[in-house]
Amino acid sequence: MVAEATEFLESLHAERQLPGLAVRLAEVREEIALTGSYRHTREELVYGARVAWRQSARCVGRVRWAGLRVRDRRHVMTAAGIAGELSAHLAAGDNGGRIQSVITVFAPDRPGVGPRARIWNDQLVRYCGHLRDDGGVVGDPAQVGMVRAARRLGWRPPPVPGRFDLLPWVIETAHESPSVWQVPRELVREVALSHPDHPWFADLMLRWHALPVISNMRLRIGGVDYSCAPFNGHYLGDEIGTRNMGDRERYDQLPVVAAGLGLDTSREDTLWREHAALVLNQAVLHSFREAGVRVSDPHTESELFMKFCAQEERAGRPVHGDWSWLNGSVGWAALHAVHHRYYDTRVPNPNLWQTDRAYDPDGVVEMTLRERHDVARAQED
């Protein structure tokens, strides 16, 4: 940890031209020697969170990294308190439809033990996946396991399951067993999808939520992990149109849209899937903009990403990137980022990392945080 902390603090002081590096390094080394970790100052936390976004290899929207709003909630340690702050995050990120990038950082992980708090949901707003008796799914198939997990904890789905029922939050802490919390519907902005050239599209009754708040990634700053640190940007249109709506393992709407368009789906060489995906993406961009909700198209975002690359190169910083994630699924051959290559394969610090899912496909958790911390305390005794 000392090496990572030193590298981080040297970077912060150099980039911000801050005095007192030697004194701060001495403080941190002493604190690590005594406790196994150290506490970031407010300035260190804000800088670290923003740089983690700047260095996140899979994100195409990094040009906005310096504008990330950091909500320091490290003092909030209870499930009820966390649920309240998640609600506040939804309101702050939504910003009246003018989506702003926000991260809420809760208490850091306990060294050698793990998270002090964990959100089981992969995003704060998701739709339920209700498994039918015949094996089919009403809603989002990606969330069937999460629905099972919530039901094991006592949650009950609506009497008549729908395709867009809000999934509840499951929150646990080192001192509390997992508990279920209803998402405040009044804080969830949704957009009904329609198409400017196809009136029948609105009859499909599709919709999607406005705010993508990722809640299953670990923020790591200078050797300190924050496993509970939900954050959001705004949607890229094809995240909804191609992935959420189009993927066969999700809402699988390509055949439905193709039927509405009268396309020949008997052969793949008609490229009916590509045609239907394009119409879905047009519908998303049109609907979000009509509703006054911030959304990006892949071409504009690709141009902005190249500006980000140029800014980083001028600052003498390498651009880390995962090519397969930085190029949208619609019109990718014409995107500027397609022609950019990323030769530095390191994963720098600070950064954001995927965390392990808290439950298995049947909704069963192997060990809760409370049990994990109890074992650690028993070993210490």
TrEMBL record:
The UniProt record lists the keyword Metal-binding: yes
Keyword annotations from UniProtKB, A to Z: Heme, Iron, Metal-binding, Oxidoreductase
A GO term, aspect molecular function: metal ion binding
Cited Pfam families: NO_synthase (PF02898)
Gene3D superfamilies, per the entry: Nitric Oxide Synthase, Chain A, domain 1, Nitric Oxide Synthase, Chain A, domain 3, Nitric Oxide Synthase,Heme Domain,Chain A domain 2
Superkingdom classification of source: Bacteria
InterPro entries on file: NOS (IPR050607), NOS_dom_1 (IPR044943), NOS_dom_2 (IPR044940), NOS_dom_3 (IPR044944), NOS_N (IPR004030), NOS_N_sf (IPR036119)
Residues of the Nitric oxide synthase (NOS) domain: 2-357
GO biological process: nitric oxide biosynthetic process
Keyword Oxidoreductase tagged: yes
PANTHER family registered for this protein in UniProt: NITRIC OXIDE SYNTHASE (PTHR43410:SF1), NITRIC OXIDE SYNTHASE OXYGENASE (PTHR43410)
Name this protein carries in UniProt: Nitric-oxide synthase
